[in-house]
Write a structure and sequence with these properties.
By secondary structure, the protein is of the alpha+beta class. The chain is built from six helices and 20 strands. Bound molecules: 4'-deoxy-4'-aminopyridoxal-5'-phosphate.
Length: 310
C-alpha cells in the first residue's frame, strides 16, 4: 500500500497507533475480503462548505453497527469503542484536516479465516467533497438510474445488515451493469421483487407530500442516515412512512433521492428513463438536503447530540 491507496492522506491509525500511510503495509495474503468496515463523516462546524472545527456525525450509530457487524461475522474487536473514537480523533488531527473528512475503519481477521481470535484494525481518513451546502452545483447534477437485474442479497444468503466487504460485490455488479447500459447507477429490488435500496445508499421517495422509505426487511443496510432522516423529516411538515414499495410505485413517485453517509441526500432524475415529477431536483428533496446540511454543521440545536467533536 502507499499514500495513494489512502486517497493521499499522510497518516492512518493501524493496530494501536497513528502511522505514516506509507508504512501501513500488510501481506497480500491477508483476508481483508472477509472483513467489515464503517463509513463515517466529519463535517465542518457552522457551514459544511467552510473550513474549521470538525464534528463526527452519527458516531454512536456507526460504531454500534460496526460492533454488530463484527459479531455477526465472528470477528473479534481488540479495542473498545472509546479507543476507536480516540484513534479517529488522533488520525484526523495528525493529518491536520480542517475540511470535511471521511473516516473508514476496517477490521479483518488475523491469520486463519475460520475461527480467528484476533483482528487487524485500520482507520484511514481522507477529505471528501460534499454535494450539500448552499448553492452547491454538485447537488443538482442529473442522475439517471435503472432497476438492476441483480437482486439485493437476501438475508437467507448473506446478512445485508452487516457492513461486510463481501456484500459490496453485489453492489459492484449492479453498478457495472448500470454503466454498461448507459445509466449512472441502479436501484435494487429484493428477492421478493419489492424495492430495496440503492447500491451504496438507502432510497427515499416522495409521493403526495409524504416521504416513503423501504423497511429493514427489504434487505437494506440499516442505515444511520436513514434513521436520522426518519427522525428529522417530520420537523419540515412531511410525514414519513416505512413500508414495502413496488417497482411501479417508485416509477410513480414525485421525487426520489438516496440517503447515506456517502450519498448524503442525492437527488435522482429518473429510474428506467421515467422522470420524477416536473422539476429537478425536487422541492422537498432540496428542503430536506438543506435542513440536513444545517444539522451536520451543528446549526440545529435539537440534533447537536448527533455530533461528536473531533
Ligand atoms: N446501503 C448501503 C448498501 C450502503 O453501502 C450504505 C452506506 N453505508 C447505506 C445504505 C447507508 O448507510 P449509512 O447511512 O449508515 O451510511
Amino acid at each position: 500500500m502507499s499514500a495513494a491507496g489512502f486517497h493521499g492522506s499522510k497518516y492512518c491509525w493501524m493496530n494501536g497507533k497513528v502511522m505514516s500511510t506509507d508504512q501501513a503495509l500488510v501481506s497480500p495474503m491477508e483476508s481483508i475480503h472477509l472483513g467489515i468496515f464503517e463509513g463515517i463523516k466529519a463535517y465542518v462546524e457552522g457551514d459544511v462548505l467552510g473550513e474549521g472545527h470538525l464534528n463526527i456525525f452519527g458516531w454512536k450509530g456507526h460504531i454500534d453497527r460496526l460492533w454488530r457487524s463484527a459479531e455477526v461475522n465472528g470477528l473479534v474487536m481488540p479495542y473498545s469503542k472509546d479507543e476507536l473514537l480516540e484513534a479517529v480523533r488522533a488520525c484526523i488531527i495528525r493529518n491536520d484536516y480542517t475540511k470535511n473528512t471521511y473516516i473508514q475503519p476496517r477490521i479483518w481477521p488475523k491469520g486463519s479465516w475460520s475461527g480467528s481470535t484476533d483482528s487487524h484494525v485500520v482507520v484511514p481518513v481522507w477529505p471528501f467533497e460534499t454535494l450539500l451546502g448552499k448553492g452547491n452545483p454538485l447537488f443538482g447534477e442529473k442522475r439517471r438510474f435503472m432497476v438492476s437485474s441483480w437482486r439485493r442479497i437476501s438475508s437467507d444468503a448473506l446478512p445485508p445488515q452487516a457492513k461486510s466487504w463481501a456484500n459490496y460485490l453485489n453492489s459492484m455488479h449492479a453498478i457495472r451493469e448500470a454503466r454498461r447500459c448507459g445509466y449512472d447507477n441502479a436501484v435494487f429490488l429484493d428477492s421478493r421483487g419489492f424495492v430495496s435500496e440503492g447500491t451504496l445508499a438507502c432510497l427515499m421517495m416522495v409521493r403526495d407530500g409524504k416521504v416513503i422509505t423501504t423497511p429493514v426487511t427489504a434487505s437494506i443496510l440499516e442505515s444511520v442516515t436513514r434513521g436520522a432522516f426518519i427522525d428529522f423529516i417530520p420537523d419540515l411538515g412531511y410525514p414519513v412512512e416505512v413500508r414495502d414499495v413496488t417497482r411501479v410505485e417508485l416509477y410513480a413517485s414525485d421525487e426520489a433521492f438516496l440517503c447515506g453517509t456517502g450519498g448524503e441526500c442525492t437527488p435522482i432524475t429518473s429510474v428506467d428513463d421515467i422522470k420524477f415529477g416536473s422539476g429537478y431536483p425536487g422541492p422537498i428533496t432540496s428542503e430536506i438536503a438543506d435542513y440536513y446540511a444545517e444539522i451536520l454543521a451543528g446549526n440545529v440545536d435539537k440534533y447537536k447530540n448527533w455530533l461528536t467533536p473531533v
